[in-house]
Amino acid sequence: MKATTRSRKAARVKMRDIAASPSKLARPKILVCSSGKGGSGKTCLTRNLAVFAAHAGLRVATIDLDPQRGLTNWYAVRPDEAVNIPNVAIPLSRLQEAMHQAEALGKLDLLVIDTPPGVDASPVEMRHLLLLADFVLVPTGQGAGDLRSVVEWMAFIRREQRPSAFVLNLTMRSAGSFDRAKQRLIEAGDLCPFDIRLYESIRVSDEIGLGVAEMKGANGLSDVRGVFTFAMHALGMKVSVDV
Ligand SMILES: Nc1ncnc2c1ncn2[C@@H]1O[C@H](COP(=O)(O)OP(=O)(O)OP(=O)(O)O)[C@@H](O)[C@H]1O
Ligand SMILES: [Mg+2]
């Protein structure tokens, strides 16, 4: 028992050293965007956080585990001159193959992983993915229907003892449901202190293959920056977020 405690302590110390310099990471940190609800912003979060990481100087890649390939379609319209972010597109049912392909990309600091809306088809792989994750972000809208399914999803993640947090997305802060949603989520798990408001520029950035960090004067930049800062902190990565 004592030995276990000592080795855990040693691992924590080692992790702190590594976190001080992302370029020395032995293996990439794995950030999974996952939610029990379709359309909650998993893909939006994945691409915007990856763009932020790339501009912050991290070696970042993404994995698109959704057979619908929303993330991969975004790459297809990404301008040639935009910063390169490698992407692996393999469905969740072939998780192991996806991870091998990501490994073949070379040394990375961060892997951001997008997941399909329903995991009923591949529950075993989803559980494996959660076990690989260093942090899980669970985006959700502020409506009652959204909350019901993400609260259930969070219970599953917490049963697996994975570090995780909700992120409110597509928000309308002036609506009464916003505060009610925050209250409901705080009762069910950790909540990212930054939400991402519903902005047309976020939708437009999706259509033109950019992240909000790459669109001059885009609304939503400070919201995404807040979530990125939170995620980096949760992963123990010290990066400058002056994007
Ligand atoms: N904060 C936001 N403001 C405006 N539009 C947004 C925002 N977040 C997401 N969207 C848009 O909402 C739609 C759904 O978002 P997204 O595709 O990221 O959800 P998802 O959870 O990946 O969906 P699915 O479960 O179908 O994969 C997209 O058109 C996206 O561009
Ligand atoms: Mg998606």
Automatic annotation (TrEMBL):
Domain of life: Bacteria
Domain CobQ/CobB/MinD/ParA nucleotide binding: 34-161
SUPFAM superfamilies on file: P-loop containing nucleoside triphosphate hydrolases
Residue ranges of coiled coil: none
Name used for this protein in its record: ParA family protein
The organism of origin for this protein: Roseomonas haemaphysalidis
